[in-house]
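User: quick one, fold this
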Amino acid sequence: MNVPGAAGAMRLTDAQRLDWLRLIRSENIGPRTFRTLLNHCGGAGAALAALPDLARLGGAERPGRICTLEEAEREMQAARRKGIAFVALGEPDYPARLRMIDDAPPLLAVHGNMEALTRPMIAIVGSRNASGAGAKFAGRLAQDLGGAGLVIVSGLARGIDAAAHQASLETGTIAVLAGGHDHIYPPENIGLAERMLAKGATVSEMPLGWEPRARDFPRRNRLISGLSVGVVIVEAARRSGSLITARMAGEQGREVFAVPGSPLDPRAEGTNGLLKNGVTLVTEAEDVLSVIRPILGRPLDMSAEEPARDATGPASEPSPDERRRIVDLLGPTPVDIDDLVRLSGASPSVVRVVLLELELAGRIERQAGGRIALR
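Assistant:
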């Protein structure tokens, strides 16, 4: 079976898709850990079997909870009844730009028009408490960019997001959800989400039945930027989720655009700050199109993906001394994996195996830029 990052398209069998769903729904496993497990074990089925031993080697008193086959089958069947499809990383329908980020969801639950995911996308996000002028401009920009062939991506929030979605219903718009498909937030936008399904889609990495929490929205924001060639911030206060999206877009190598606002309006503090830092100013759609046309004309660089196999060779079993040295180098201050390799004297593959064991034991967390810290 091909694994994420392998050249060429793949298609999972039904049994493999269930294994993938079980693995990503298991405790202490996020997108990065999922990919490391597949590369280390050779497949999701083998990874599921290896989880207890890997967690034990990482120091866990008991292994994390593993999603059962019955639970995965129930979620799959419930999704099928609602017309939701699980698209796997590496399959032809998986969005190409999202595939490039290092924490891309292994499975993306898609409701609506799958074709919209294959087209170039631009994100438009901004304040929930939008001004009338800001909402009007977001709608006009979305309509013009949609008319130029772009699918509009946003987060279905009140204000700017909703205005961008509403204006691009006819040309195609995608809403990234912070919860499951059966927990649309905010509830007043349920009707809007349903109307976008004909020519667009709603997408989520979260399980059906998942009610979004405050910490799920930044996680969702990385998908908004990851799907897109660039992100336009229309209104954003000094501390806002939209600025988190802008930061993530920059980390992912996406273009960042901002619409200027009045210095007297707190909703423009964040956007005006972005402009001071050199992002592209937007007053019309052509400001966006002139930047992204050359990008869309270039082949996608998939170099950010992990290789199908460890380029340094097969992973060897870490020795007790290597495990101790690597753990001793970790602390509450985040550290780069490259520094762990250099300071421990262990091979990259050994360091990755030890980090995998520690993560499955719930002892470390991954932070911005892929850095590692002890919990």
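User: anything notable?
Assistant: The chain is about 40% helix and 10% strand.
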